[in-house]
Design goal:
Blueprint lengths: L2 E5 L15 H10 L4 E4 L11 H14 L5 E5 L5 H13 L4 E4 L10 H13 L6 E5 L1 H4 L5 H11 L3 E6 L4 H8 L6 E4 L5 H6 L4 E4 L2 H16 L3 H7 L1 H11 L4 H11 L15 H22 L1
Parallel strand pairs: 1-2, 1-8, 2-3, 3-4, 4-5, 5-6, 6-7
Length: 299
């Protein structure tokens, strides 16, 4: 069975403050729709628009709200190593099942050794919790092969246990998965799920699973039955969402769509902000199409 984690949006009020009372509804929704874990405070969660205290409050809210059986992953990456370490230690104190971090994302690390040392120092701040390297070069600009990062990190940090691979290079995904014994390789490109399944993906973390997890399970089930054409057909809404979102504001658009398909987590913070009327209308159209697809697999 495909292990699905949702990269959760951070709930905000209309004036941009944390709306932590929404977290319980988010957690219950994920659990009810077949999601195995919540990955909070990541790219979808707008971590770079939050201060460390807000990120800690978010992790605490998820720890308090998650139902039994829903795993918790906390992203702790930061441009300031000391704050990343503080966030990692705090996430461990909240009982996180997984701690993940991007590398430096303003200018990148100068060498592979520097990147690994940075990540290992974060991992060391949470010595009792599995650590994962969050590879998302479209956001960080990292030029290092994740397979090389994971291999070196596993030697430098004994808690290394995962990688969140948010990239379309499936050959490199395969190399990364094999880079260290027992590594959990979470695939993060929801719009490429059928191709990922063909390359051995069995764990995913992505934003669209906040509202579309049952459809992803149906895609995986069709693939396991030996029906790749049916898996690809069922997957069509993911590809359409990605196409429209990329042309209409990315993270802010996706948050509005997931709000329409689940608990309302409010608007995104700057620079994404509120959608214009045309984009909001597209959200409504897409949400209706996704609901129809979900009814098809649920019924």
């Amino acid at each position: 069975m495909l292990e699905i984690w949702a990269a959760t949006p951070t709930p905000f009020t209309p004036d941009g403050k944390l709306a932590l009372d929404v977290v319980a509804a988010q957690a219950a929704h994920l659990h009810a729709t077949g999601v195995a874990g919540a990955f909070v405070g990541g790219t979808t969660g707008e971590f770079a628009a939050m201060d460390a205290a807000e990120r800690q409050s978010l992790a605490e809210a998820w720890q308090d709200a998650r139902p039994s059986g829903l795993k918790l992953g906390v992203h702790v990456g930061h441009t300031d190593l000391a704050q990343a370490q503080q966030l990692a230690a705090h996430a461990e104190s909240c009982g996180a099942d997984l701690i993940g971090a991007v590398g430096p994302y303003y200018g990148d690390a100068p060498t592979l050794d520097a990147l690994v040392a940075h990540l290992a120092a974060i991992a060391a701040a949470a010595p009792g919790t599995p650590f994962g390297f969050y590879h998302i070069p479209s956001m960080t600009g990292s030029r290092f092969r994740p397979s090389e990062v994971v291999a070196a990190l596993a030697a430098a940090a004994p808690t290394t246990g995962a990688v969140k691979f948010t990239d379309g290079d499936l050959l490199e995904y395969d190399r990364t998965r094999a880079a260290a014994p027992g590594i959990d390789a979470y695939f993060g490109r929801d719009e490429l799920l059928p191709a990922g399944l063909a390359c051995g993906v069995d764990k995913v973390i992505g934003s669209l699973y906040n509202g579309m997890a049952p459809l992803a399970h149906a895609v995986a089930a069709a693939f396991r039955r030996g029906e790749p054409a049916e898996a690809y057909r069922l997957h069509a809404p993911f590809r359409e969402v990605a196409r429209v979102a990329n042309a209409n504001g990315g993270i802010g658009f996706l948050k509005a769509l997931m709000n329409a398909l689940g608990p309302d987590a409010g608007p995104a913070r700057s620079p994404y902000g509120r959608l214009d009327d045309a984009s909001a209308a597209l959200v409504g159209e897409l949400a209706a199409a996704v609901r129809a697809a979900l009814e098809g697999v649920d019924g």
